[in-house]
Amino acid sequence: MKRIIKKLKIEGRLHKVELMIIEKKDRAFLKRLFEEWKKTNEDVKKIGTRGINLPESFSESCFCLFFPSARVIKVHGKTSGSFDTIDLKTGRRQQIKACSTEKELTSFGPRSVWDDLYFLDFSKLDGSFAVYKIPNKYIYERGVNRNQTFREQQKEKRRPRFSIKQLIKEKGIKPIKICKL
């Protein structure tokens, strides 16, 4: 892994962006982190609590290992909101969500923005994960409670929550890639 600073066009303007580049040689490190997380997760459950979420920096790094993207550490200058990674070839902003369980509830920040949304499913717990690209049209108008859509909750500066796995099942979305650490 290496940190770099690069000038990138975001929302039509050049920004200085601090990035974390994930290299092929980082694969063994990420695999070790996954195994340590899995062990800690199992141990935590033994004391009568729910498991611990996968750290977002881990899932974002795993995504970048298999795609031409880098983790965004910091964008200098004003942008409309936050995103996780950026495609180094196209400049598209990416939001990465992940789960390690069969049932999940995914939360979004009120300022989350992206061009492309990816969901990583680690639920096999064997170091593999399925990557789904979720069309934006399915997100913004998604009902998150009886009265509101995702977009409406974001406008109220709330944190919309819903199950992406349920959405994947309902819409018949297939993985674009299966990856293995």
Structure description:
- The chain has helices at residues 27-46, 56-66, 137-140, 150-155, 164-171; strands at 2-10, 13-21, 69-76, 85-87, 93-99, 106-107, 116-121, 128-134, 161-162, 177-180.
- Strand 1 (2-10) and strand 2 (13-21) form a beta hairpin.
- The relative contact order is 0.15.
- 27% of the residues lie in helices and 31% in strands.
- The chain has 181 residues and is of the alpha+beta class.
- The mean pLDDT is 92.
- It contains 5 helices and 10 strands, in the order ββααββββββααβαβ.
- The two termini are 15 Å apart.
- Strands 1-2-3-4-5-7-8-10 form an 8-stranded mixed beta sheet.
Q: Tags for this entry?
A:
181 residues; alpha+beta; eight-stranded mixed sheet; 10 strands; globular
Give a brief description.
With 181 residues, the chain is α+β, with helices and mostly antiparallel strands.
Order of helices and strands: EEHHEEEEEEHHEHE
Cα-atom radius of gyration: 17 Å
Which term fits the overall shape?
globular
Amino- and carboxy-terminal Cα gap: 15 Å
Q: Order of strands in the sheet with the most strands?
A: 1-2-3-4-5-7-8-10
Number of strands: 10
Main beta sheet: 8 strands, mixed
Report the β-strand fraction as a percent range: 25-35%
Which structural class should the secondary elements be placed in? Answer: alpha+beta
**What percentage of residues falls in helices of 4 or more residues?**
25-40%
Number of helices: 5
Mean pLDDT: 92
Runs with pLDDT <50, length 5+? none
